[in-house]
Amino acid sequence: MRFALGVEYDGSGYVGWQRQSEGRTVQASVEQALSSVADEAVHVVCAGRTDSGVHASGQVVHFDTGADRPEYNWLRGSNANLPDDIGVQWITAVSEDFHARFSATRRHYRYVIYTQAARPALLRDQVCWQSRVLDVARMAQGAQALLGEHDFTSFRAAACQAHSPVRTIHSLDVQRRGQFIYIDVIANAFLHHMVRCIAGVLIKVGCGDRPVGWVDEVLRTRDRKVSGYNAPPAGLYLVNVSYPGKFKVPSAGRLPVFS
Fold it and tell me: Per the domain annotation, does 253 fall within a domain?
């Protein structure tokens, strides 16, 4: 059988989602927990591989197994074997043509910026701290240049393995709530470091280091060196993955909201 599950995690204690030869990874932890329930080796595939320090409230995963267990037992058993900073939120049987990565039509990331003069201690791994005042209106105006289908070479990591730099951003909203600024990006797919690079460019515009039109300039140059700044991973969350309705996957995760 094939199952899909929704996973949330605090990525601050991990070297990323993907299993590696060294360091704690979210994938290895999830596979170990599911394997304990299945009493056989389980391999999982995720909707989007997150980097070291990046969080998720709506990661979607699928796995195949020959073990016959009720869905409730999968949910309860996997959580009993997971560390406290990873949790399975739901699990459901899906058809064999469902694929957590390739069946996804949209992905939603939220980037959280905390603006105050003093460095936060309790939120140090949860938000991007900025001591300077950021003009949200300028950030929102600059962000409009990124809407639609574009070549996002300027917003990808040098080590990005994607075959094409072309992606479609369906919406990009910037809003302030008190001392917190939320950047919400929904696209068909993302390149390596794409959201963090977008956030970094918008921060430079917001603090006045660059004009609003610079966002469009960075996009058009198709040169990663022009943007030059990746916002830190701590403020980034994968919050939702969308799929065609035929799969009936409850993909929505909780939006991280601070006050």
Answer: no
SS3 for 138-169 is: HHHHHHHHHCEEEECHHHCCCCCCCCCCEEEE
Same domain (yes/no): 68, 90? yes
Nearest to 26 by CA among 44, 40, 42: 44
Among candidate residues 148, 134, 138, the one with its CA nearest the CA of residue 231: 134
Q: Is residue 259 domain-resident?
A: no
Active-site annotation holds for 51: yes
- Catalytic residue (choose from 39, 51, 68, 125): 51
Domain containing 128 equals: 106-238
CATH code of the domain containing 169 = 3.30.70.660
CATH at 28: 3.30.70.580
- 254 occurs within a structural domain: no
* Helices assigned H by DSSP within the chain: 26-38, 71-80, 136-143, 194-206, 214-221, 224-227
Can you tell me which residue has the tokens 């399975």? Answer: 88
Residues 133 and 89 in one domain: no
The sign of the CA dihedral 85, 185, 156, 233 is negative
Domains: count for the chain: 2
Tens of each residue's pLDDT in the chain, 259 residues = 999 999 999 999 999 999 998 999 999 999 999 999 999 999 999 999 999 999 999 999 999 999 999 999 999 999 999 999 999 999 999 999 999 999 999 999 999 999 999 999 999 999 999 999 999 999 999 999 999 999 999 999 988 889 999 999 999 999 999 999 999 999 999 999 999 999 999 999 999 999 999 999 999 999 988 887 899 999 999 999 999 999 999 877 889 999 7
